[in-house]
């Protein structure tokens, strides 16, 4: 399998109804399904067979174009499809049987929905005459997933399979991307049908707006050049539109500062002098504060979620708002927009560049000198940092930062959810789009390993590292077996502090250090304050990893850190897991406590920034 030559922009997909000779052939519905997947350009499917979907697995065995990767849990299949989609820009595909197989996909489908990731989930269903009878392994997966899919289908007529597959891929990839579920009755897979391709799409009500309104673009450009303290608030929509180049042109043309949300990391280089970092609950002080002090929130492909805004009614209190998004439902949902713009981020940015240049040509140019003086003071005074670990112990931030430095910005990094996720977003320097994969909206523990697996399947020539926590790792580590058997040599860095770290941090700060059920290495009757003695690790991640065919390494001392990372980098014939034993009292800073104003940001425990200016 070869690496894709280029990452397509959002909406690129093989034409379901491209001109050409009509293909008609008699075959089973199952054969029609596989032929349809080939026709839309799917090259990788992650899944597990079972009774209702089994008819599809027989012709899948004969396909020379579609690779099937047998996962160990359906949740792994869904997250792998997401990781594949995020890394490649193509639609990810997962497949499962009816009942529990399908319901095990619910979490990754919800995850993809929250983060606007294009995946198609194909599930088997009981025979059409048995639907609604509580048949063995029956579940109404269409009903279950209706709130968390962009669209879904129940197919009982085999003749509908090609059209439905073509539509599913089109819907998943265009407009605001998202998951589409295709549930196919077993008898529809078994019945004879006439396969027809190309197909005629039947989506009269689906017309995503991609081209922005010219008047709104002109109004936005005027606000930008007249603002004194603008901020380009950049969300994941810019990354999904493959609009990083256009964003950089606009930023450098205007000189405005840029903040990138958790889902947009990498779309604008971390090293760029105009980049202030990530906003939000654990964002940088300059990024969070710039949004609070700005007079113009220039919002591109972001959704004003609570982790960014903090207490909503205190967010950016003096700012006018330009809000550009491909999904009109997002505009004004949380914060009214003075200038709403509906359109694809790449189209919006391209038009804005022209409009801003026209303002410049007319003699209208923003002067942000005083604004940058303040911003640079904040960047200098409140940089990201961390306290060193106790003597002889590893700091988790140091581990993650060093991985980023040694592995470099060309690799793909997938993170689980929790402290390690935030530290990875803070201390790995991201310079390129589609190199940072994480579960942002849903916050799904267990995401990292299968997502890294999917990314490696889509980008086999790129190093892929999963930065995981010991809690997250224990949810989906069985996919290491899948990686071993399918030549997907990912690297997994387990940041092992013996606890559910982010929950423990909240217990430290808000629950009087009552560590109820967050210690992972001890059972009832143990307070779990001290880590277990050598030889009593439960589970022992090194032995566990080796049992699944991976190389297991452990690092406990700072002086061994570089050598262990380099050793892992040199192993490329199987997965590698490094168990980094880190001290358990490290916390993620800066922090805005949930439900409070971003003005309450702390850059360390009990320490709030003092900006000392008239904007406070």
From TrEMBL:
> For the Thiamine pyrophosphate enzyme N-terminal TPP-binding domain, which residue ranges apply?
27-142
Q: Which PROSITE patterns match?
A: TPP_ENZYMES
| Domain spans labelled Thiamine pyrophosphate enzyme central | 217-352
Source superkingdom: Bacteria
Q: Which reaction does it catalyse?
A: 2 pyruvate + H(+) = (2S)-2-acetolactate + CO2
Name the SUPFAM superfamilies on file: DHS-like NAD/FAD-binding domain, Thiamin diphosphate-binding fold (THDP-binding)
Q: In which pathway does it act?
A: Amino-acid biosynthesis; L-valine biosynthesis; L-valine from pyruvate: step 1/4; Amino-acid biosynthesis; L-isoleucine biosynthesis; L-isoleucine from 2-oxobutanoate: step 1/4
Query: Keyword set for this entry?
Result: Amino-acid biosynthesis, Branched-chain amino acid biosynthesis, Magnesium, Metal-binding, Thiamine pyrophosphate, Transferase
In this record, what's one Pfam family? TPP_enzyme_N
Q: Where is the Thiamine pyrophosphate enzyme TPP-binding domain?
A: 416-580
Protein name in the entry = Acetolactate synthase
Where does this protein come from, organism-wise?
A: Kitasatospora saccharophila
